[in-house]
Amino acid sequence: MKRSVNPAKALERAERRLAEKRKRELARLRARIISRFWAQQRAEKRKAARAAEQTRMKVVKSTARAARKASSEAVRERVAARRTAAKERAKAAVKSARESAKARAKKTRAAAAERAKAKQAQARTSRALRKRSARIMARLSGRARPKLSRRKGLKGIVAASRRRLKARTLRAKRVTARKERRAATVQRRRARRAIVTANRRASSKRQRELRSLKSAILRRASRQRRAARKAAVRQRRAEKKALHRAAVRQRARARRKEVRERRAMRRAEARAAARARSAAARQARIAAYKANRAAGKAARDYEAHRARHERAASRARQGIIAAALGRIGSLIGARINVGLTGDPARRMHGTGKLNVATIAYKNEYGIGVPERPFMRLTVARERREWMGLAAQVVQGQAKGAATVERGLRRMGLRMAADHKRTIRETVPPPNAPSTIQRKGSSKPLIDTGQMINSIRAEVVLPDGTTEVIG
Q1: Percentage of residues in the chain having pLDDT higher than 70
Q2: End of a domain among 234, 262, 279?
Q3: What's phi and psi for 149, nearest 5 deg?
């Protein structure tokens, strides 16, 4: 005798396994989302740290470059100042040498003039002496010569004249030498004064130029330091602003993520509570069924004359149930995959960079764009309806109806249509104003219509054949 199988219990076990499978999938999805979130957090932190380090190195390099430039300019200016001072000293030396040469030439000309004057004076004195001697000789030749002593004779007169001439010449030489010495002293003093004045002027000019050059270098260095400090302050402010903005964005993302997770948990808890209520109701129905069955058995015990008929009916029912379960078992291997599948999903999107399935995945899980889970929303909202359709298909198969393939196709069409209806009913959050202006519509997930038209249902029949409908 074959063992009887309770369809209600079998259905309950199947639903329980399905619920546990959904719970495991939800836990895996949640763990994947959390791990992706923390991976993004770590990547953003590393990126911010690299940006801050690059900014700091840029500031350090620019400061070092400015310092090197200022030092090189200062060195060049010092070299230029030294060259200028050397040129000024050379000019002053050349000028003093020229002035000293002029003074020596002037002194030489003055000495030559004095010697010429002395010669002229000596020549005049000699001529005067000769004339006087001639006059004396003429006077003496015209009258008798007086008697003169040896000392007062003509020779004595000539000697006295010569002594007087010599004394006068010596006096003139002494006067000339004294004048020459005074003139040379005056010239030397003037030359020294000119050299000292020129040196003073050159040194004062060099000092003024050096002071002005030093002050210019200091002013330029101070301006460069102030500019470097201002640039560093601006850079630090920009870094602080960037870090603050990144932290604000990160906190906002974390808050939005937390809100989404809380909502998902509340929805999961609500679904679990609903399942628990439905399970309790199902258990109550099963208990009522068992009670009724027990009451029927007791009635059959009391009615012995109907026992044979009841046993026959029971065997017949068991045979029917076994046949129904056998037909239900023929559904093993049948499944329905709904989403972006087949060739339309593998085609490139209108932008020409990604295919349609990748665009749908990014919108579903919020990768690079705001999260709009149209597939998960559809599953959460339409799961009970789909379970009812599946139950109808199972009941039809149990009854031996020949419309199993048609029921599966109808169920696949219904699931694909539910996904499209979810997209048309606007999945939150709404589009940004710039996106609305670009595409000319406020409907999220709908731009060219390529993604919504690529949603298909892939029906796998028990015999292994596959049909894509939608």
Answers
A1: 81
A2: 234
A3: -80, 170
Q: Are residues 229 and 340 in the same domain?
A: no
Boundary (domain end) residue, out of 210, 234, 258: 234
Tokens of 240: 């602080």
In terms of domains, do 355 and 221 share one? no
The per-type count for the chain, helices as H runs and strands as E runs, is: 9, 3
300, two tokens: 């059959």
Q: Is residue 346 a part of any domain in this protein?
A: yes
Across all residues in the chain, what is the average pLDDT?
Answer: 77
DSSP letter for 425, please: T
97 and 215 share one domain = yes
DSSP three-state, residue 428: coil
Q: Which pLDDT score, from 0 to 100, does residue 153 have?
A: 54
Residue 289 lies in a domain: no
The answer to the question of residue 302 being in a domain is: no
188-208 residue pLDDT tens: 788 778 778 877 777 777 777
How many domains, in total, are found in the chain? 2
Which residue type is seen at 7? P
Output 404-409 pairs: Cβ under 8 A, ≥24 positions apart.
404/331, 404/334, 404/462, 405/461, 408/334, 408/336, 408/459, 408/461, 409/459, 409/467, 409/469
pLDDT at 334 over 60: yes
More confident residue, 317 or 359: 359
Range of the domain at 428: 333-470
Q: In whole angstroms, give the CA distance from residue 298 to residue 292.
A: 10
Which helix (H) or strand (E) element contains residue 457?
strand 455-460
Mean pLDDT of all residues in 10-15: 74
